[in-house]
Amino acid sequence: MSVTGRVWGALTAMIKLEDKVTRQSEALKEQQSKIEDLTARVIRLEAQLELLTTAARARRLKGD
Fold first, then answer.
1. In CA terms, which of 13, 21, 35, 49 is 20 to 30 Å from 6?
2. Strand, coil or helix: what is 7?
3. How far apart are CA 2 and CA 6, in angstroms?
4. How far is CA 8 from CA 2, 3, 14, 15, 16, in A?
5. What's the start-to-end Cα distance of the chain, in Å?
6. Cα dihedral angle (30, 36, 42, 48), rounded to 10 degrees?
7. Mean pLDDT on 53-64
8. CA distance 54 to 36
9. What does the alpha-carbon distance between residue 10 and residue 16 come to, in Å, rounded to a whole number?
10. For position 61, what pLDDT does the model report?
């Protein structure tokens, strides 16, 4: 293989690698967004659970 062929092969490999890195970066951003959405949902569920357990304790104390 000639020097020109090797240089061309290296350039095409770099371009392919750059494309893969770009796609992985976009996928990572999407995953991070989904994780943040799920985290917010879990926080809301925890708050609701805390309110419900507090209300249940208050009702039990009133009933006694």
1. 21
2. helix
3. 6
4. 10, 8, 10, 11, 12
5. 90
6. -120
7. 85
8. 27
9. 10
10. 82
Rg (CA), the chain: 28
Q: Which two tokens stand for residue 12?
A: 């095409």
Q: Which tokens belong to 15?
A: 């371009």
* Residue 8 tokens, joined: 């061309």
> Which token pair is 21?
């890195």
d(CA 23, CA 33): 16
Tens digit of each residue's pLDDT (9 = 90 or more) over 2-54 = 999 999 999 999 999 999 999 999 999 999 999 999 999 999 999 999 999 99
